[in-house]
Amino acid sequence: MGFLENFEKGLERIVNGAFSKTFKSELQPVEIASAIRAEMDSKASILSRDRILAPNTFSVSLATPDFKRMATLGDSLINELTELTTRHAVKQGFQFGAALAIKLIEDQTLNMGQVTVRSTSQNTKVEWMPTLDVAGKRFLLNKAHTSVGRDASADIQIDDNGLSRKHFEIIWDGKSAAVRDLRSTNGTTVNGKKIDEVAIADSTLIQAGRSDFTFRVIARTISE
């Protein structure tokens, strides 16, 4: 268990786009984590009902005494902060447009106990990509119609004798998705209900044969 595992929710006061708070005692790692969380929450952008894009780069400014003290923790501090920030993003349903990066900066103008967090999003173009997760594997759905079944003729072949040769398909038009049963023997279930065809959103559970599938829509950066 990491040394930040049980940190409590931090203060969430935002001033001109940056989190700033002076603590009465020595600055603690949990307070840095809380500051990053607050900054992320304030800067997340709602792109659609199911998609929220969060900033991926965080610059954490610390007073010289605090910076030197945190530096003694080495990479373990950054690793813990990165893990906790990622967990918070997942819990909130946030997605990153690029890899998460956290950097500590020494700021001689700050008083001891003061922390300021500023965030940015990399200037990259983002596209939303549908995926299907099953048995620890993730499949990109890069076609308008993607069939799933046990036979090699299916776009996604799954080793499951409970599946029909082509059991169901995912339909994607670039913005929205649907799942359609392909006259399978045992039927297709979406969120606990048998379907013929139904619209689906991020995190929808699809059950077919003996397998559980999770439909997701993820952010993917595009090289320009």
From TrEMBL:
It holds the Pfam family FhaA_N. Gene3D superfamilies: 2.60.200.20, FhaA, phosphopeptide-binding domain (DUF3662) (3.30.2320.60). InterPro entries: Cell_Proc_Reg/RNA_Proc, FHA_dom, FhaA_N, FhaA_N_sf, SMAD_FHA_dom_sf. CDD domains: FHA. Residues 146-195 form the FHA domain. SMART domains: FHA. This is Unannotated protein. It comes from freshwater metagenome.
